[in-house]
């Protein structure tokens, strides 16, 4: 009956702790805590990201976005949409994102700038109200939010033209002073 409460991943720190305790108890406890910490923090640093190709690439992080995950998200976007062989617009589905931090805002700001410099669009959909307030307070240039995927796809052509116009103004894109 006790084994039905554990998943396979729960047994990993238990086994590590048990077997290392044969060496010395304090090392076993430390090893168990370290393995548990790794198992808890890995999903935060490497969230599951679903990528769908249609008119634009739709990227949907399955977990929230916090400090450790922004580099992984940026690498995924670079690999999928900004590589030299196939550059295309990206729709970032944020329906599963319930909170963000300052580092995520900075990372997404830099990503928006990279898209603007390449005359591409990065569109956000499904932002929750409190997350949207954070983005609006940051006053990001080129930030576009839509409630549904269909709305975002319909306006993609218009946004592409607006991005070209904004770049022709020779505006300087800076990342400092985003949130005050």
TrEMBL record:
InterPro entries according to UniProt: SLC26A/SulP_fam, STAS_dom, STAS_dom_sf
Record bears the keyword Transport: yes
Pfam families referenced in this protein's UniProt entry, alphabetically: STAS (PF01740)
Alphabetically ordered keywords of this record: Anion exchange, Cell membrane, Ion transport, Lysosome, Membrane, Transmembrane, Transmembrane helix, Transport
A GO BP entry: inorganic ion transmembrane transport
Membrane topology: Multi-pass membrane protein
Transmembrane segments: 27-45
PROSITE patterns (UniProt xref): STAS
Molecular function per GO: antiporter activity; monoatomic anion transmembrane transporter activity
Subcellular location field: Apical cell membrane; Basolateral cell membrane; Lysosome membrane
STAS domain residues: 57-159
Record's catalysed reaction(s): oxalate(in) + chloride(out) = oxalate(out) + chloride(in); sulfate(in) + H(+)(in) = sulfate(out) + H(+)(out); hydrogencarbonate(in) + chloride(out) = hydrogencarbonate(out) + chloride(in)
Gene Ontology CC annotations of this record: apical plasma membrane; basolateral plasma membrane; lysosomal membrane
Family according to the record: Belongs to the SLC26A/SulP transporter (TC 2.A.53) family.
Function noted in UniProt: Sodium-independent anion exchanger mediating bicarbonate, chloride, sulfate and oxalate transport. Exhibits sodium-independent sulfate anion transporter activity that may cooperate with SLC26A2 to mediate DIDS-sensitive sulfate uptake into high endothelial venules endothelial cells (HEVEC). In the kidney, mediates chloride-bicarbonate exchange, facilitating V-ATPase-mediated acid secretion. May function as a chloride channel, playing an important role in moderating chloride homeostasis and neuronal activity in the cerebellum.
Protein name: Sodium-independent sulfate anion transporter
Organism: Micrurus corallinus (Brazilian coral snake)
């Amino acid at each position: 009956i006790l084994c039905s409460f554990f998943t396979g991943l729960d047994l990993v720190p238990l086994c590590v702790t048990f077997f290392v305790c044969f060496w010395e108890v304090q090392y076993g406890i430390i090893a168990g805590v370290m393995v548990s910490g790794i198992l808890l923090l890995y999903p935060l640093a490497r969230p599951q990201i679903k990528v769908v190709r249609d008119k634009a690439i739709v990227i949907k992080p399955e977990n929230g976005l916090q400090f450790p995950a922004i580099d992984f998200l940026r690498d995924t976007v670079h690999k999928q949409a900004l590589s030299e062989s196939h550059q295309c617009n990206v729709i970032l589905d944020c329906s599963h994102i319930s909170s963000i931090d300052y580092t995520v805002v900075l990372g997404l700001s830099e990503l928006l700038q990279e898209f603007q410099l390449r005359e591409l669009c990065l569109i956000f959909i499904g932002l929750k109200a409190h997350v949207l307030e954070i983005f609006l307070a940051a006053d990001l240039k080129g930030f576009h939010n839509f409630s549904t995927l269909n709305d975002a796809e319909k306006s993609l052509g218009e946004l592409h033209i607006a991005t070209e116009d904004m770049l022709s103004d020779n505006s300087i894109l800076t990342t400092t002073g985003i949130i005050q």
